Automatic annotation (TrEMBL):
Organism: Streptomyces montanus
Name of protein: Cellulosome protein
TM stretches of this protein: none
GO molecular function: carbohydrate binding
Domain CBM6 positions: 449-595, 725-875
InterPro entries linked: CBM6 (IPR005084), Galactose-bd-like_sf (IPR008979), GH (IPR017853)
CDD domains per UniProt: CBM35_galactosidase-like
Length: 880
């Protein structure tokens, strides 16, 4: 099955006698309001500072976060006042505190002999929470209090832990009174407080009565909240219904946050989530992705600490929209599981952006009423695909599938026929003025194809065809390519899964195996990553380690390359290999993706300045010697920010292409780089070698003198200038209970250091050498599989921490997300300042007390330990 979408520009549609393709129509003349960006919210998506990284937070443009009360025992991490500073510093707007999450369990375990006693206990806890918020300085202005969460199923429902086992939906008197008391209590302690509610699981008709009571008693919420665990169609319908209630009750329009949306079937899948995004943006509300799985990964958007999957890149594209939204008419308006989209027009930037998806096959994207005063009679269209890469599968930047000039019709219309779309992908079109001589970029991928595991040939014992998995009728299940997957490659198996493939030419092909092993399954617990064996036509064996996940059917991908000649081949995945050994574990396989590693793929990644996030600058489409549609003129202190992908931690060459006119400085991940200014008096390229962290990097070019005309960045992996020095942890000095272990065979050299923590005496010390003083990247290879006892469906992995001291300076706390098994090692990079010569690194850890410093978590949700540490690499951040 081919999955390569293509696009051809045209101003005509269809041919005589042919079936008309579906049309997504973008009307640039109909302004539907300022761009809001509210769909990029997250429930329990932030664990703490660094999990996820600030790059992921800022680059995803996360607007709102709903999270637990500080020190609440619902889940590990995600404590409101620990999340608040890094979130706000990364551009976030509001943190919604679920005040009821100060209790354990769900339904909440609400202590007390009767309803009044339970409410009194809760009010005491509310008072403490507000007093803690008031210590946060200006950060407190970004707090929204949510006194009750899904009250109809919890505190004012029918269960044993409720107020009186009577649902407020039938008799609201006790809930209404409690709302009034808690509202007044919060406002008495914090008169500037914003309070949200009622936070019901759906928008019940009874909410209108809540509004009437709230108005009559002067306790109207500052933000109206409810959950939409339904479909995008319900978002538009519910918002319209609620707005009508406001009019009928006589309440001015309130901000809305639908602070839980989406299901497992939708989350991580760009083609599904874009349908929600379009409904949420059209409704001009905020909304938070639902929390079904683990916290700290931005609701299945983040991979490890600093990588994004396809869903992350969708929100990156969405958050870079500017200006105002315009009318988008879908072929099936407001119908879930069909082609939907959202589009903007920014007159100042002379740019229109559209993101869309949800349909396989072909469709026309039609831009109408293109203003010749803004765009001219020729437009430049860049078309990108944002593919699904699984919940735990890292994704590179969106694929460029077309970059071209299009003549606008006399009726002001331009049509882009999209062919071969994948319903799991989202797509972006960026429209700019054309006709200025900019050279269109080549597609970033040439030939590629997908082969489903359920269509492959299986021989040997243990075969299972699993599915159908997630679907429109089974939204609680996880999405899977083709709906089915294959099991059988496991400990003791002789299974072989054979894919018959055909490729167009001789060459090297990138191969991605989409797979999953459940980290707590018995056969998987022994080794961790399940190993299988790859061969091409029975030759060239490779051993692959497949991805772990927090549940079954949680997909990631393992990537390798194979050499193929033009024609047919058989690619096998086997549970045993005569040369390499046998499988340990248990895996399911979804599909394999093959793509030709040609000049499209090996060329540097291109990041056009006119598509960057701009501050104090606008695109300039008048220069005739640019790539793409234009350039950006950067006066002093104006900036262009790029979200740059790196597949691994290490050296990269950033080529700054410019047209001269001035100079600019560079910063990387918020740090000014100690490198010469780029630019000059005439057109040229400045190559800068920098250390990029695996995943997402924020590169900002800031005007320094005169006015640099910035064309683009080109980024490629390189080697030899920023050379890492690698230190094995076992070669350091361990003290106290910390010890060297050989229990984890996938550690480099077979050894690592464990049991650092539970007191500063149990430490690891390493002496590292820097050839010059300055900023360095410290890359820590680690593993962490600690998991707290959970009360319901959420796995509760713990992000361990290390307190890292350099040369005896005060320690910096570094969080390490779960790797799902202690024998599964990941890299995490932190920047440090080193002096020339020998530097001493000390790793310690201790349990963090609760916010007030007088108590500790009683449910083992704050680990006293550092992760298992395998090795340390030290690399200069930039060239000398």
């Amino acid at each position: 099955m081919a999955v390569l979408a293509t696009v051809l520009a045209s101003t005509t549609v269809g041919t005589a006698g042919a079936a008309e393709p579906e049309r997504l129509v973008v009307d640039l003349a109909t302004d539907t309001g300022p761009f809001h960006g509210g769909a990029s919210g997250s429930l329990y998506g932030v664990y703490g500072d660094g999990v996820p990284s600030r790059n992921l937070l800022e680059g995803m443009h996360v607007r709102t976060v709903s999270t637990k009360a500080q020190d609440g025992p619902q889940h590990p991490g995600a404590d409101a006042l620990e999340v608040l500073p890094p979130f706000v510093d990364s551009g976030g707007k509001d943190v919604y505190i679920y005040m009821t999450d100060i209790y354990r369990g769900f339904p909440y375990q609400w202590p007390g002999a009767d309803g009044p006693a339970r409410l009194a206990d809760f009010k005491a806890k509310i008072k403490k929470q507000v007093q803690q918020v008031l210590t946060m300085g200006d950060y407190k202005d970004h707090v929204v209090y949510v006194p009750f969460n899904e009250p109809e199923g919890n505190m004012f429902g029918t269960g044993d832990w409720s107020y009186n086992k009577v649902s407020w939906l039938k008799d609201p008197q006790h809930y209404f009174a409690a709302w009034k008391e808690t509202y007044q209590l919060i406002k008495s302690l914090d008169p500037q407080a914003r309070i949200a509610g009622p936070n019901t699981s759906v928008l019940y008709d009874q909410v209108k009565g809540f509004l009437q009571y709230a108005k009559a008693n002067d306790v109207v919420p500052d933000v109206m909240t409810w959950h939409e665990l339904s479909s995008p169609a319900a978002v538009r319908t519910s918002v319209a219904k609620y707005r009508q209630w406001e009019k009928e009750v006589g309440i001015d329009p309130l901000p809305i946050n639908v602070n839980e949306y989406g299901h497992n079937y939708h989350l991580s899948v760009p083609g599904q989530v874009v349908q929600w995004v379009s409904a949420i943006e059209e409704s001009k509300i905020d909304a938070d992705l639902a929390y079904w799985n683990i916290d700290g990964n931005l609701n299945d958007s983040a991979v490890e600490a600093n990588k994004g999957n396809g869903q992350w890149w969708l929100f990156n594209a969405y958050g870079q929209m500017t200006g105002h939204t315009v009318k988008v008419t879908a072929p099936h308006p407001n119908v879930q599981y069909t082609l939907q989209g959202v589009a903007t027009l920014d007159e100042d930037k002379k740019q229109s952006r559209a993101i869309f998806g949800g349909k396989s096959g072909d469709a026309d994207v039609v831009f109408q009423n293109i203003d010749p005063e803004l765009f001219g009679t020729t437009v430049h269209a860049t078309v990108q695909e944002i593919p699904w890469t699984g919940q735990v599968g890292d994704s590179a930047q969106p694929l460029r599938i077309a970059d071209q000039e299009i003549q606008v019709g006399t009726d002001g219309t331009a049509t882009l026929p999209m062919t071969g779309m994948n319903e799991m992908s989202a797509y972006q079109v960026i429209l700019s003025p054309g006709g200025n001589g900019g050279a269109p970029a080549e597609p970033s991928v040439g030939w590629r194809k997908t082969y489903e595991a359920e269509n492959a040939t299986y021989t040997g014992r243990g075969y299972s065809k699993n599915g159908p998995e997630g679907s429109p009728s089974q939204v609680g299940k996880f999405a899977t390519s083709g709906a089915y997957n294959v099991g059988g490659l496991r400990t003791g198996s002789d299974g072989v899964l054979a894919f018959d493939v055909e490729v167009p030419q001789d060459g090297t092909y990138d191969l991605s195996v989409f797979a999953n092993s459940y980290n707590l399954y018995d056969l998987v617990k022994e080794q961790g990553p399940t190993n299988v064996f790859l061969r091409v036509d029975g030759k060239d064996p490779q051993e692959l380690r497949l991805p772990l996940g927090y549940k079954w059917v949680v997909w990631g991908h393992t990537d390798t390359s194979v050499k193929l000649t033009a024609g047919k081949h058989r690619i096998t995945l086997a549970a045993k290999d005569p040369d390499l050994g046998v499988t340990k574990g248990d895996a399911i396989i979804d599909k394999i993706d093959l793509s030709l590693r040609d000049e499209h793929v090996t060329a540097p990644a291109i990041y056009e300045a006119e598509y960057a996030t701009l501050s104090g600058a606008r695109p300039d489409y008048t220069s005739a010697s640019t790539s793409g549609p234009g350039a950006v003129r950067l006066p002093k202190d104006a900036s262009a920010t790029f979200w740059v992908y790196a597949p691994t931690d290490g050296e990269a060459t950033v080529s700054v292409d410019h047209l001269g006119g001035g100079r600019a400085g560079l910063s990387l991940n918020g740090e000014k780089l100690d490198v010469p200014k780029v630019g000059g008096g005439k057109e040229g390229t400045d190559d800068v070698r920098v250390f990029l962290s695996g995943g997402i990097n924020k590169i900002t070019v800031t005007g320094a003198s005169r006015e640099l005309a910035l064309d683009r960045l080109r980024v490629t992996q390189s080697h030899g200038t920023l050379v890492p020095k690698v230190y094995q942890a076992e070669d350091g000095t361990v003290s106290g209970a910390a010890k060297v272990t050989d229990a984890y065979g996938f550690a480099s050299g077979g050894k690592a250091v464990t049991d650092v923590g539970d007191g500063k005496a149990n430490a690891l010390t390493l002496d590292v050498v820097a050839e010059r003083s300055g900023r360095h990247a410290l890359t820590i290879r680690y593993s962490n599989a600690e998991q707290a006892p959970a009360t319901h469906y959420n796995p509760d992995p713990i992000a361990r921490h290390a307190d890292l001291s350099v040369n005896g300076e005060p320690a910096r706390r570094v969080l390490f997300p779960t790797t799902f098994h202690y024998n599964n090692f990941w890299d995490l990079t932190v920047p440090v300042t080193l002096k020339k010569g020998t530097n001493r690194l000390t790793f310690t850890a201790d349990e963090l007390p609760d916010f007030n410093g007088d108590t500790y978590n009683q449910y083992d949700q704050r680990s006293p330990y550092a992760p298992v540490i395998d090795r340390i690499a030290v690399t200069p951040l930039t060239q000398g």
